[in-house]
Amino acid sequence: MTATLSAPQSIESWLGEEGEDLLTYKAKVSKDLLHLPGPDFIERIWSVSDRSTQVLRSIQHLYSFGRLAKTGYISILPVDQGIEHSAGASFAPNPMYFDPENVIKLAIEAGCNAVATTLGVLGSVSRKYAYKIPFIAKINHNELLTFPNHYDQIMFASVEQAWNLGAVAVGATIYFGSEQSTRQIQEVSIAFARAHELGMATILWCYLRNDVFSQDKDYHLAGDLTGQANHLGVTIEADIIKQKLPEYNHGYEAVAKATGKSYGKTNDRIYTDLVTDHPIDLTRYQVLNCYCGRVGLINSGGASGKHDFAEAIRTAVINKRAGGTGLISGRKTFQRPFEEGVKLFHAIQDVYLSPDVTIA
Fold first, then answer.
1. Which residues are CB-contacts of 207 (< 8 A; sequence separation ≥ 6)?
2. Pick from 104, 230, 271, 326: CA 20 to 30 A from residue 110's CA?
């Protein structure tokens, strides 16, 4: 049977030459080790955790909205790029999104589970929309205006502010590997604990950031390093992990070779027994580090470009077949005409709704 999308093309045709391989590949680590998404995910996984009934309700609310409602998968619109990448760089391609209300309208029209954005955006329209779609308030950012530019996540908002405007979850970023990561880990851990006290869910952007990771390849996208970042993220009780799709491996070795110094800890069996160079295996290793899928892994959609539909569908297929929980896609959707952004979200969501895209 041909897996179909809301867009005119099938999943296979969007994947091109990779189609058959991505849709039929059998992962090196068995799916039997994983806690897979499903309609009963909250009851099956989170009900035995230390999360309060209020937190369970918030997590369930995230999983119960939009086109992917009650499937165990989630589709999120994130728009913190106005700070992270500057408002001009983010919204000049489509100036309507300088108006925060249009961000919320896109998420609703696209059938997203939630919208993740800044305190200012959510606060400006909260009374009109907080009960129409789940809000995720991103509480820290890299302001990127200080000269020279430096990369540090600092708190822009409090957990209490997020709660007061009606958010069901807070989001935060940690730049693992950066000089500031120790402080960020402590700040976000405290914030997440407070969010749980108030009954909100927590989502962590587990990004790597250090010039030493840029060698012959961009090891910010290494499966072994991003997997460990995920593991640190679930340790401070993130309920959902956001991570970039991995493209390489052997990040630990690359850093040690480049610096001539010992770096971190790894094990050769990661590379021989658990992971190959196949993108599904690399992403499955990310899922393994999210407590074997007990904490949902959502991969980011990446920057906007000429092949957004194909790239987004490819990422969704890899994430789903690896055992992930969904996609969080921003610039690919809001940097294009509104209706095209809606169609792109629907194409992504159709991957998760398709019974023909199975777990590898």
1. 173, 174, 175, 176, 220, 229, 243, 244
2. 230
